[in-house]
Amino acid sequence: EKIVYISRHGQSEMNVKDIIGGNGYLSPSGVEYSEKLGDYIANNIDTENTRFVTSSMNRTRQTAMLAGVSPEQNEDLDEIDAGDFDGLSYGEVKCRFPSEYEARKDDKLNYRYPNGESYVDLLKRTRLALNSVDFENCDNFLIIHQAVARCLIAIMLGLSDDKVPQMEIPLHTVIKIQGSEITYQKLL
Ligand code: G3H
């Protein structure tokens, strides 16, 4: 059975400031993780028979570049679109748009950001991305985003949609999925 590896991008500048979305680059800690990811790949991955894929966003591409791999890009793997709230911090949303903040807290799966996406939307988009992943002929190594990883893992393991928005996807950790087995290896 082919293996699917999933890693979030290294910590980004936005993660540090608790900002939603954006298209920023990595923090110093994110850079350090990416280098460790490069060591992990060199020591554990059969790179000849592995397809590396990132989203189209700067932080996933920078992670792959620093890890020394040249990936394909798939914009269906881009992070959930926060629409009008892209670039705001969670605290700002809570303070300036309290009813939106509460609505998302009450039903994170169905809540759609103004002019953006919901997790239900994202599940649809990531299903498309998954269809384009070759599970037959090679292993796949995806460098992606938290919300996208939640969706993909739920789809692959057959979890119910209501589990998706709260799933824990640790930063700086390689997640390995083979059949129904999932393992986590923290690198930093
Ligand atoms: O910026 C997007 C985050 O990775 C997703 O986090 O859906 O838990 O707010 P959230």
TrEMBL record:
<comment type="similarity">
    <text>In the C-terminal section; belongs to the phosphoglycerate mutase family.</text>
</comment>
<dbReference type="Pfam" id="PF00300">
    <property type="entry name" value="His_Phos_1"/>
</dbReference>
<dbReference type="InterPro" id="IPR001345">
    <property type="entry name" value="PG/BPGM_mutase_AS"/>
</dbReference>
<protein>
    <submittedName>
        <fullName>Uncharacterized protein</fullName>
    </submittedName>
</protein>
<dbReference type="GO" id="GO:0005524">
    <property type="term" value="F:ATP binding"/>
</dbReference>
<dbReference type="GO" id="GO:0006003">
    <property type="term" value="P:fructose 2,6-bisphosphate metabolic process"/>
</dbReference>
<dbReference type="GO" id="GO:0004331">
    <property type="term" value="F:fructose-2,6-bisphosphate 2-phosphatase activity"/>
</dbReference>
<dbReference type="InterPro" id="IPR013078">
    <property type="entry name" value="His_Pase_superF_clade-1"/>
</dbReference>
<dbReference type="GO" id="GO:0005829">
    <property type="term" value="C:cytosol"/>
</dbReference>
<dbReference type="InterPro" id="IPR003094">
    <property type="entry name" value="6Pfruct_kin"/>
</dbReference>
<dbReference type="InterPro" id="IPR029033">
    <property type="entry name" value="His_PPase_superfam"/>
</dbReference>
<dbReference type="GO" id="GO:0003873">
    <property type="term" value="F:6-phosphofructo-2-kinase activity"/>
</dbReference>
<keyword id="KW-0511">Multifunctional enzyme</keyword>
